[in-house]
Structures are given as structure tokens and as C-alpha cells.
Amino acid sequence: MDGLSFGWTFLTWRLLCMALLAGVGSAQLNLSLSFPDYVTRYAPLVLLHPEEPYMPSDILAHIQHTSPQLDHKILTGLPALDLDNLEVLNQFGDQVALTSNDDPTALPPWMLGERPDDSGLIRNATPCAVILVEKSEAVLDAFYFYFYSFNEGPSIKQVLEPLHSIIGGDSNFNQSLHFGNHVGDWEHNMIRFQDGKPVGIYYSQHRDGVAYDWDDEKISKIDDRPITYSARGTHATYPTKGDQIHDFAIRDYCDEGPTWDPILSAYFYHFDPPTFTLTQLSAPGALSPPSSNLTSFFHYVGRWGDAQYPESDPRQATVPRFGLKRFVTGPNGPRFKHLVRKGLMRDHPRKLGWMEWFVGVYMSWYPCCLKGWRVWVTLGIVVTAISGIIIGVWIGIRKWHKGKGEAYSRVEAGEIPLEDFVLEEQGLLSSSDDDDD
Fold this sequence. Notes:
2 domains, disordered C terminus
């Protein structure tokens, strides 16, 4: 209880300091409590998949339907958690997991989210948070975060050949299972503005993402608003519909389904990197400042979903040969999404694991060199090349040994007079200055 009391005291002081810093920061930046109109005018429109099973979800409802756990044990003695006190969990470290109160495999209604109506509005839910980051007086980054209570990973049929056959050939693995599932899912777009005009856009895709110039032909727009296609189940964001490939060998499905207008049901914020302060802003068109300070959720450092289930859990399964899990740990929140970056992409690319690197190399070679009969041609070329190298090295060594043997033979046979060695030695010891004289 002493730790909890300390946590509450720390949280209270933090909120007071944040309020003071927010006031100072707003004065210095001349930032009003209303949202810049160009951020909403060019905001993305999200096209969900026609068969999307997990729609956008209310952020607060997600918190209310989960319980914080550490090492799969529920943390007790806490107040009712919400958007304005969630960071109280930080006193327990960054491995806290907001764990579903219901079995995800039972498809509880709250986990299915809310479908937008014909106008693009999601009623009775707020699944979006828009965060502004000012880089300079002229440049502003607007992050549009989309929240879903569940991420359904790909099934085996979404894995490209030949990995599909390698995995699918195991009769002990249930082919209908999806892997990489997790409770809680944050996706986002980022639009960079210069002097109030959009210049580029970023699309988050699983652990990575892609960026485009605003005028790139791949970007479709409706009334100057870019289209974001949300992949079925995974909610990864793409600029075009159709099948999309990620992680070298997995297929995402994008198509034109329900249209969601995120800014119609969103929280709005300004983030100040030097002070790490998040300030809630008034919604577009609002005439009064926000009546709440729902910022604590941003500072929460734990996970937004269940921790990876152990092997002993009957819900867990492992993909043969590759070790991928059916259920993995939920994601971190918006504060970990590289809000401060020089370009449109994150500053430091993600490092690939050895397995991912191997799959990438293998899949890049597969179409041209390893598919069908091509593998035998490739093997023939490789074997021939290796054989040529070995033979070349062997011949070189033979010649070198032969040359040394002939030299020794000439010395032993007396073919090289001893006085030649003496004269050569004297020449090496004499000075070139003497020759010049």
C-alpha cells in the first residue's frame, strides 16, 4: 500500500506540473485550445474491409473491460482505471498488461468494436486520438491514431509459397488458426504539414510502415482527404486496395468496405517534446475548452493487451518450424510510435531478426532462382562455381609446391654457384651513394 500511496502522490504532482507546463507551453507557442482547421480538412478517411470482424473500438471501454496483470497475476488495490489515471500503473514497470476480462476466443461483443454509419461516424465510441507535434513554426506533424480492441493475425492460407507448403505440410497444425493475434491494436497515419499545406503521409504497417509524398500517384483522395485502406483483421494501413505483402511472405487483404471518418469520433491533443507534455485540445468547431484532461493514458508505459499466453494455455499454439505464436503480447501505446522524427519515416530502421532476415533473402531469390525447375539450375550453377573455385585453389597450390620443389632441387644439384649468392649479398649491403660517386 505504501508503494500505491507513493504512486498516487507522484501522479498528483505530475498532473499539477503538466497543467503548469501546458499553460507555459501554450503561451510560448501561441497555441490556441482549438484544432487547426487544415488538420481536419486533410485528415485521412479509413476504408475498412467489407468482411472486417473487428471494428474500431472505444478506448475507454477497452480499459474498462480489462484488468492490469503482471506476470499473469492481477494487480489489486487499484482504483477504477480510465483515460485520466492509467499511468498509475507505471509504478509497477513497463511489463504491465491490460488483460481481457473475457476469453478472446469467445468473441465478446466489446472486442468486436463499433461499425461506422453511412456518414462515417462511429456512435457511442471514441476510437481515435489525433496528436499534433510542432517541429518548427512552419512544420507540423499530425498523427491520427486508430484503436481496435483486437488484432486478428493471418492464417496459414495468407502465407506465400513455398513457405505455405512448408508450414501447411505439418498434419499436426490446425490450418484454420490465425497466428500473431493480440488484444489491443494501435495503428496510425501521420501527415506532415508545412505552412498549413500537406507535404507527405506515413502509413503504419505492422512493425514497419511506408511514406509517400503528398502528390504521389499511389495516394487516392476524396475532397483532398487521403484514403487509408485498413487490412482485414490486422488493420495495417495501406494507400491502395488489393492484396498487400508484408514481412516478405504474408498477405494482407484490403478492399472498399465501410468508410470511417476518424475525426468525427476522436480526442485531440498537442504534444510538446521538450517537456514531454500532452495537452488536450478542443474538438474542431468547439466554442469552449475541453471539460476534461484525458491525457494519462498517453503516459502509460505498459501493454494494451494480454501478455503472450504460455505453452500450457490451451488457447496457445505454435507455427511449426518458425516458432510463431497464435497469441502474442499486446502493443504499446501512442507514446512509443516515434512521435519525434526528422523525416516521414522513423529515424532508425527496425533491426531484423535472423529468421526474418533469412526469410527475406529466401523469398527474394525464390521467384527467379528457387521456384520449380529453377532450383536445379541454381544448384547446378552453385555446384559448378564451387567446384571451379576448389579446382582453381588446388591447381594453384600444386604449382606453388612444384615451384618450391624445383628451387630446392636446383640448389641441391649445384646448378646455382655459391659465389652468386655472395655477390648478391654484397650488393644488398653496399650503399647506393657509393655508386653515384
